[in-house]
Amino acid sequence: MIKLYYSPGACSLASHIVLEELGIAYEPVLVSLKDGEHKKADFLKINPKARVPALNVDGKVLTENVAILTYLGGGYAERGLWPKETWKQAEALSLMAWLASSVHIAFAGIFRPERFCTDVPAHAAIGATSRATIEKYFADIDKLLTGRTFAMGGQYTVCDPYLLVFYRWGNRIGLPMKERFPVWAKHAQRVASRPTVKRILEAEGIQIDG
């Protein structure tokens, strides 16, 4: 049995979409970050890091999006969401690792500035610096996607819903995504138009532009 612990609109959205894309049986378990459920004892038994996503597979728990997406993509390779060539697999891991270690962390400077500094008056400066960094990273993503249907080229992979997470977050912080990053905007529209993605967006009660 597979259980996915997720919170609406969090980075767990990527894993949620991929599970739906795979067409395998799984149970989504809501953990509301907004309500602090990730810090409660029941969830900390599952993931002491107090983060989503967490994936429980027959009693074994896997955390961190990069690991979960790699397991889902590679473990169900016949479903076509994972590159076949070793080099392409490495490229997919490289992209996902960068999204997790750099792009996501930059957003933490806006959403969670207290992680970087307890001095509240400094939070505005942290947010401004983070926003500038995000815009630089987003320009890199737009360039990466130029001339490609999907992140890895012509094949839709686990990388594409992961990119959708950050596209949505760009909208959340008020960046003019369609105007500033037109190539990525088309990619996001392409991904969001998939029936499986639509189902998960509806299930989580979220939209790409908000």
- Give the % helix: 55-70%
CATH topology of the largest domain: Glutathione S-transferase Yfyf (Class Pi), Chain A, domain 2
Poorly predicted spans: none
Q: Which strand-content bin applies to the residues?
A: 5-15%
Compute the number of structural domains: 2
E-strand count = 4
User: Helical region count?
Assistant: 9
Widest sheet: strand ordering: 2-1-3-4
Q: Could you say which overall geometry the principal axes of the C-alpha atoms support?
A: globular
> What is the end-to-end distance?
33 Å
CATH class categorisation of the largest domain = Mainly Alpha
Helices and strands: which structural class?
Answer: alpha+beta
CATH architecture title of the largest domain: Up-down Bundle
Q: What integer is the average pLDDT? A: 97
Largest sheet: 4 strands, mixed
Rg? 17 Å
- In N-to-C order, the SSE pattern is EHEHEEHHHHHHH
Describe this structure in words.
By secondary structure, this protein is of the alpha+beta class. It folds into 2 domains: 2-79, Glutaredoxin; 86-194, Glutathione S-transferase Yfyf (Class Pi), Chain A, domain 2 (Up-down Bundle), CATH 1.20.1050. It is 55% helix and 8% strand. It has 9 helices and 4 strands. It has helices at residues 12-22, 41-46, 65-75, 86-111, 123-145, 159-172, 177-180, 182-192, 195-204; strands at residues 2-6, 27-30, 54-57, 60-63. It has a 4-stranded mixed β-sheet, with helices on one face. Helix 1 (12-22) packs across helix 9 (195-204). The longest helix has 26 residues, at 86-111. It is globular, with a radius of gyration of 17 Å. The chain starts with a strand and ends in a 6-residue tail after the last helix.
